[in-house]
Amino acid sequence: MIADTRRVKVLVADNHPMFRMGVSQALSAYPEVEIVGEAADGVSALDKIRSFRPDIAIVDCTMRSGCGAHVATVVAREGLNTKILILSLSQSGKSAYQAILNGASGFLTKNIQPGELRKAVIACARGEAVLPPDVTAGLVGEMRRNHIAQEMQLTPREHEVLSKIAAGMSIPEIAKHLYLAPTTVKSHVQRVYEKLGVSSRGAVVAEAMRRGLLD
After folding, report:
1. What CATH number belongs to 8-133?
2. How far apart are the C-alpha atoms of 65 and 52, rounded to whole Å?
3. The predicted structure's pLDDT at residue 41
4. Which of 43, 60, 102, 51 is closest to 77 using CA atoms?
5. How many angstroms separate the CA atoms of 142 and 144, rounded?
6. Four-CA torsion 88, 90, 91, 93, nearest 10 degrees
7. CATH architecture, domain 152-210
8. pTM for the full model?
């Protein structure tokens, strides 16, 4: 946690000079914030994070030579203590999801007011996740979509069973070939049908081919 007696050191990284300057000037107006540097691209941002070790790096989501998510990934991989707060023109749940997944501590839209940005910086420095309501809704939706997609993926065993179905094998033949009980094979077949949204052998093979699941 950042002590009340110490200013929060902030690096601002954005490839638009006027926006970068505006963010720096807006935050400099608050006595608890100290701007330690600026960067115009991802490479420069990472170099300055390593050199200045700011508490917070405010990074543009779509910056040249290293977007905000990439910067967050490198910072996490190198074990640096700087927390990444990403600013974006978009409220995209997909962008927010990717940023948080890559190690960012927060995701804000660029229409944020100076006072709200200052609160976000302080909260982030204290170790809190920073996500405004307009971004949170999209993030939750993206998380649900990714969860559903993962649930619908075939397991390695289900892939094996699918390939045997495509080869024309019966359930007893599949069971013998894979050293499984016929009841177990039936369960795998039913699960494959459910995941691919079909109800017959012909349909499951056709759908698997359409999705590129069969060689």
Report:
1. 3.40.50.2300
2. 20
3. 92
4. 102
5. 5
6. -90
7. Orthogonal Bundle (1.10)
8. 0.62
